[in-house]
Amino acid sequence: NAGVTQTPKFQVLKTGQSMTLQCAQDMNHNSMYWYRQDPGMGLRLIYYSASEGTTDKGEVPNGYNVSRLNKREFSLRLESAAPSQTSVYFCASSEIAGTKPYEQYFGPGTRLTVT
Amino acid sequence: QKEVEQNSGPLSVPEGAIASLNCTYSDRGSQSFFWYRQYSGKSPELIMFIYSNGDKEDGRFTAQLNKASQYVSLLIRDSQPSDSATYLCAVSTGFQKLVFGTGTRLLVSP
Description:
The structure holds two protein chains of two kinds.
Chain A: E1 4-7, E2 10-13, E3 19-25, E4 31-38, E5 42-49, E6 56-57, E7 64-68, E8 74-78, E9 87-94, E10 105-106, E11 110-114
Parallel strand pairs in A: 2-11
Antiparallel strand pairs in A: 1-3, 3-8, 4-5, 4-9, 5-6, 7-8, 9-10, 9-11
Chain B: E1 4-5, E2 11-14, E3 19-25, E4 32-38, E5 45-50, E6 54-58, E7 61-66, E8 71-76, E9 85-94, E10 97-100, E11 104-109
């Protein structure tokens, strides 16, 4: 199993350009997440999808949109990139299983620079 | 006040010593607690989770939870240079969502 995969690994954008970050998981998990990680700020939740067909805002959703394409895939779109969106983006997935703790499994990350 | 607080470090310990990493959280309704390790330039990987008061041991790692004090800790026994990383505390505050601390950087010197 590949686990959680993300593409691309690196990206440089100019201010105002758009792009979509792709994420896929092969663990049959119901829930998927997008985080950004900035120095000194830790991981902050952008959007999440508790199950196929649903998405909800996290802590820092402004400037982003998401699509849960199917159970495996969850994409993050930047419509008009800004330098403040320079960050490392992580996708994660987890299973829902009653009272079981919701450990999340992370992809390798996308390092995005907006100039 | 941040929901999950950690000392940013670095915490420096010699090889073979016990490293103690601490985390406090603000939401008394939190039910699940996680420790992730993140090497520089890599993604976080789960080390342990705990959801009952007391201690939980897994090899060289022990997680400790005190819900009354809203405090969770991670002890690493016989620390190795390969344990040098940033350790992230995460707390489940609602359905399927985790809130992460900013992490503590651990340095284990040979």
